[in-house]
Design goal:
This protein is α+β, with helices and mostly antiparallel strands. 33% of the residues lie in helices and 19% in strands. The strands form 6 sheets. The chain has a 3-stranded antiparallel beta sheet, covered by helices on one side. The protein has a 3-stranded antiparallel beta sheet with strand order 8-2-9, with no helix packed on it. The mean pLDDT is 91.
C-alpha cells in the first residue's frame, strides 16, 4: 500500500495512507473527543477563505521563508496552543481552522508520477479504525460520510489554490516585510515579538491607483485589511499567555 514519505507530511500528520475498500473495508470514524493533537503548535495555516472569521479570534500573520503562507497565531511561545484546554477541548467561541477540522484526512498525490489526488488519512490518529461506527464504505460503495469528507477536502484544496494565488500577487507587489510588534507592560520593559512577516503599510499606501483598484475589485484589499486589523490581537495573546502562566504558578 502506497504512502507519503514522512519528510513531506504537513503539520499534525504522522503517517498518510490512501483509503481503499481493499485495506479498509470495515473502517469507520470514532467520535473525536479532543483536539490534543493541536497542543504542540503555536501557529496553524489558514486559507484566504477564512480570513474574515479567523481575524476575530487570532492574529493573522505570514510565515517566513521563500514561500510564506498565512498563519493564525495560537500563542507567542513555540509549541504552545492557548486555545485548547487540559482535556483537549477547543476554547468555546474561538474559531476552529479548517486545517484542524480536516484532520486526519487529506487529499494527496501518492507519488511524483501521480496525476490525481487520493483521499488519505493518518492511520496513527485513532480516529479511523475498524471499530469506528460511522463507516466509510458499504461493500464496494462509498458511504455518505466518505462523500462528505471528500467534499470538505476538495473545498479545502480549492481554498489552498486561491491562497497561493493571493500570495503570488503579494510577492509580485512586494508587500510583505519582516514583522515586529512591541507590547507595552506597566512598570516593565516592553516585549518585542518578531519571527513573522506582515504587510508593510507604507508599501500598501504607495501602490499605483490602478493596482489598488484591481485589488479592491478582486477582494485582495479586504483580505489585507483583515490581516492588518487582526495584528493588535498579538497583545491579547501575550496577556492570555501571562494569565495562564500565573494560574499555573498558583496551582503549583
Amino acid at each position: 500500500m502506497a504512502s507519503v514519505p514522512a519528510s513531506q507530511l504537513p503539520l499534525f500528520y504522522k503517517s498518510i495512507v490512501p483509503i481503499s475498500t481493499q485495506f479498509h473495508p470495515n473502517h469507520g470514524l470514532v467520535p473525536q473527543d479532543n483536539l490534543n493533537f493541536t497542543r504542540v503548535t503555536h501557529a496553524i495555516p489558514v486559507t484566504v477563505d477564512e480570513f474574515a472569521v479567523a481575524q476575530r479570534t487570532f492574529p493573522i500573520v505570514f510565515g517566513v521563508g521563500d514561500q510564506p503562507a498565512p498563519l493564525v497565531l495560537l500563542s507567542l511561545v513555540d509549541g504552545l496552543n492557548l486555545f485548547v484546554d487540559d482535556v483537549g477541548k477547543w476554547e468555546e467561541g474561538a474559531y476552529l481552522p479548517a486545517f484542524v477540522r480536516r484532520y486526519p484526512f487529506m487529499l494527496a498525490k501518492l507519488g511524483p508520477e501521480a496525476t490525481e489526488l487520493s483521499l488519505c488519512f493518518d492511520d496513527t490518529s485513532g480516529i479511523v479504525t475498524p471499530d469506528g461506527g460511522d463507516k466509510l464504505f458499504d461493500g464496494d460503495a462509498k458511504t455518505a460520510t466518505t462523500d462528505r469528507i471528500l467534499d470538505f477536502c476538495g473545498s479545502f484544496e480549492q481554498a489552498v489554490a486561491r491562497t497561493r494565488g493571493f500570495m503570488d500577487e503579494m510577492n509580485k507587489l512586494d508587500l510583505l516585510t519582516d514583522g515586529e510588534v512591541t507590547i507595552q507592560q506597566p512598570n516593565r520593559d516592553p516585549v518585542v515579538y518578531r519571527g513573522f512577516r506582515m504587510v508593510a503599510e507604507e508599501k500598501l499606501q504607495a501602490l499605483r491607483g490602478d493596482q489598488a483598484r484591481k485589488m479592491v475589485q478582486s477582494g485582495m484589499m479586504g483580505l489585507i485589511y483583515a490581516h492588518l486589523f487582526s495584528l493588535p490581537l498579538i497583545t491579547m495573546l501575550f496577556e492570555k499567555g501571562q494569565a495562564k502562566a500565573t494560574i499555573a504558578a498558583v496551582n503549583n
